């Protein structure tokens, strides 16, 4: 990611009618003027001045979380579900450091959030004052930009700029750290008429020559593939993508971050590429002669060993962040711009180029269709009598439908949720892809439900992840945020266990959680969820799965938690092991029970 720099904009000149507000009132007024309706936070000494006017503000709903990490992920879920900027508030020191994981997560996945933290008095900074932490310094590498505000008159400009930076260009987290004396002091409140940040000028409109060159390559390619990344969702450019895809007839793959950017039901869609991608999607990239990367960043989970990735492919790479282009794979045609515009321009240019030359891609499609027939996604039934986790997740998707929002934790259940739920629209699939943050799911689902109250929101979580942030169920129950939580309880840190099974001779070191199997059940998730004011159910047989999901779908007066007790031996297939060539997808064929069955 490019390091964007911007100083706090200078306060505009005051006039005779300029109101005088405390810095704390200025924070709240600024949020009002930005149209913010919901914030997630938890007060403490250094941010208490802000909490006082917040109490009376009628436009901003403050949701009191139980842990600041929850506020950060809730802000992320809010943003990822709605496209609007999410806001988290915390006090200095431990309050601010509790936000760090969520900030890092938002940075990796390009999520627009603004975190407002209280800081000790400016006169005490640097003295190891009570609850002092240099949060600007700590988060410098994981924010798009940070502001340290020490004067009340700078507050409106800093907050307005923070929102502008978070939401424009490559979205990301911005921190506004405000000293307590700045919150308490009075100053004229002057709202900046326009945000103009010297040094911050994201390029949105791409160069016409590059667009033409890309269109020409697409028209000439015999084995093209559109490698669609999370940038398409952040750009809200799914419709434009579909138009281009249908014009070219090229196959489409969607990364873990892009699930839903292109409908799963579309005939041109091959599914997710990468370590746990479908065989057709992995091989489409690997065997292609042209990769058109659209807001995708050639992550190692997708490329495998980068030097062996797609050896015959030319690359068109579109990204709003120039730092991403040619970072991993040299682009033959680099295009810097906003996909919302670039896709329209590319479509128009493609139609012109295709009128002259259109390569025949029939053979390419027969190869890919053959792979689709031969290697559909599948799973085998566990032999220990416990439920198949894939079945449970698939039924949640089928009974809820494509308008639902699904926020996953990290691990096996995350991969199965990416594979076995059908995504037909953007902003339906929320997860932690880049950082892989266990604990993301419940608070992110809470944030999503606040942003999109009319949609059904599921947290699909692992028994390990759930234990990291489930305290936010109290927040949901008290604030009438009726999310639904499916704990895919395999009684273990399943994804780590899977790697131990495959790469550490089956030595399962410290991955047994004792949450679901055998006589020990600590904690009992049903009792825990009931203690938090949720409707709680346990399901141990496949024949009871549908009824429990239906009960959850019908319950909207409180959160619902379902403890699905599933087999610990289920594996995520296909799997290309880390750091090898993707042509090694043969590995998946050899090791996947589903494939083995098909080959018999
Ligand atoms: C357990 C686990 C397993 C995983 N396995 C897989 C796997 O099998 N397959 C897989 O795909 N991933 C997998 N991942 C996720 C992986 O780690 C990466 O997070 C993911 O592949 C990155 O997705 P992306 O390339 O779409 O980029 P993103 O991280 O979504 O980045 C988006 C890009 O779009 C750009 N952008 C943003 N807005 C715009 C705009 N308006 N216009 C233009 N460009 C824009 C950004 O600058 C950025 O470069 C896994 C993660 C975990 C935790
Ligand atoms: C905060 C954090 N700690 C550790 C890890 C490493 N890790 C990745 S997946 C995983 C297991 C997750 O277990 P669970 O939530 O039960 O999900 P499952 O894999 O069993 O579906 C672990 C420990 C991580 N990603 N995040």
TrEMBL record:
Keyword Repressor appears in the UniProt entry: no
Entries under Gene3D superfamilies matching the protein: 3.40.50.970, TPP-binding domain (3.40.50.1220)
Alphabetical keyword list: Amino-acid biosynthesis, Branched-chain amino acid biosynthesis, FAD, Flavoprotein, Magnesium, Metal-binding, Thiamine pyrophosphate, Transferase
Functional pathway: Amino-acid biosynthesis; L-isoleucine biosynthesis; L-isoleucine from 2-oxobutanoate: step 1/4; Amino-acid biosynthesis; L-valine biosynthesis; L-valine from pyruvate: step 1/4
Annotated catalysed reactions: 2 pyruvate + H(+) = (2S)-2-acetolactate + CO2
GO molecular function term, any single one: magnesium ion binding
Cofactor note: Binds 1 thiamine pyrophosphate per subunit. Binds 1 Mg(2+) ion per subunit.
Domain Thiamine pyrophosphate enzyme central: from-to ranges: 211-346
Domain Thiamine pyrophosphate enzyme N-terminal TPP-binding: 22-136
Gene Ontology CC, one term: acetolactate synthase complex
Family statement: Belongs to the TPP enzyme family.
Name under which the protein is recorded: Acetolactate synthase
Organism: Microbacterium kyungheense
Lineage: Bacteria, Bacillati, Actinomycetota, Actinomycetes, Micrococcales
């Amino acid at each position: 990611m490019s390091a964007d720099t911007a100083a706090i904009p200078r306060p505009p000149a005051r006039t005779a009618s300029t109101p005088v507000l405390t810095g704390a009132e200025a924070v709240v007024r600024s949020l009002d003027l930005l149209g913010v309706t919901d914030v997630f936070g938890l007060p403490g000494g250094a941010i208490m001045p802000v909490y006082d006017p917040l109490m009376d503000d009628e436009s901003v709903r403050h949701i009191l979380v139980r842990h600041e990490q929850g506020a950060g992920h809730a802000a992320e879920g809010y943003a990822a579900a709605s496209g609007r900027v999410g806001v988290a508030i915390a006090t200095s020191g431990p309050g601010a450091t509790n936000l760090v994981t969520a900030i890092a997560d938002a940075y990796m996945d390009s999520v627009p959030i603004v975190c407002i933290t209280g800081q000790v008095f400016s006169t005490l900074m640097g003295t190891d004052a009570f609850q002092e932490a240099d949060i600007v310094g700590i988060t410098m590498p994981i924010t798009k930009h940070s502001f340290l505000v020490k004067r009340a008159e700078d507050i409106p400009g800093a907050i307005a700029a923070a929102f502008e930076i978070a939401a424009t260009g490559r979205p990301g987290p911005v921190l506004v750290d405000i000293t307590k004396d700045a919150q308490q002091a009075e100053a004229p409140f002057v709202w900046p008429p326009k945000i103009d940040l010297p040094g911050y000028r994201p390029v949105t409109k791409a160069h016409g020559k590059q667009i033409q060159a890309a269109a020409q390559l697409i028209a000439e390619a015999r084995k093209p593939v559109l490698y669609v990344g999370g940038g398409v969702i952040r750009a809200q450019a799914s419709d434009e993508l579909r138009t281009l895809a249908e014009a070219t007839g090229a196959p489409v793959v969607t990364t873990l971050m892009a699930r839903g950017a292109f409908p799963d039901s579309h005939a041109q869609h091959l599914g997710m590429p990468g370590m746990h991608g479908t065989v057709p999607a992995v091989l489409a990239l690997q065997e292609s002669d042209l990769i058109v990367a659209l807001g995708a960043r050639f992550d190692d989970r997708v490329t495998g060993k980068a030097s062996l990735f797609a050896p015959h492919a030319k690359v068109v790479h579109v990204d709003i962040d120039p730092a991403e282009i040619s970072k991993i794979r040299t682009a033959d045609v680099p295009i810097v711009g906003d996909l919302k515009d670039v896709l329209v321009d590319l479509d128009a240019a493609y139609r012109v180029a295709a009128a002259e030359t259109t390569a025949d891609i029939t053979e390419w499609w027969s190869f890919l269709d053959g792979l689709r027939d031969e290697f559909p996604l599948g799973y085998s039934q566990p032999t220990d009598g416990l439920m198949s986790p894939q079945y449970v997740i698939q039924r949640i998707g089928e009974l809820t439908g494509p308008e639902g929002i699904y926020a996953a934790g990290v691990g096996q259940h995350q991969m199965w949720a990416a594979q076995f739920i059908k995504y037909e629209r953007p902003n339906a699939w929320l997860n932690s892809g880049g950082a892989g943050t266990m604990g993301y799911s419940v608070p992110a689902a809470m944030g999503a439900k606040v942003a999109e109250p009319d949609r059904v929101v599921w947290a699909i979580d692992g028994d390990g992840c759930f234990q990291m942030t489930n305290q936010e169920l109290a927040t949901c129950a008290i604030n009438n945020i009726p999310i639904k939580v499916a704990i895919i309880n395999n009684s273990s840190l399943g994804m780590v266990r899977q790697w131990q099974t495959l790469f550490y001779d089956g030595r399962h070191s410290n991955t047994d959680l004792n949450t679901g199997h055998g006589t020990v059940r600590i904690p009992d998730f049903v009792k825990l969820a009931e203690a938090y004011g949720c409707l709680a159910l346990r399901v141990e047989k496949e024949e009871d799965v549908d009824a429990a999901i239906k009960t959850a779908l019908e319950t909207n007066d409180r959160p619902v938690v379902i403890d699905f007790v599933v087999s610990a031996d289920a594996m995520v297939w296909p799997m290309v092991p880390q750091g090898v060539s993707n042509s090694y997808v043969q590995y998946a064929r050899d090791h996947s029970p589903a494939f083995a069955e098909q080959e018999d």
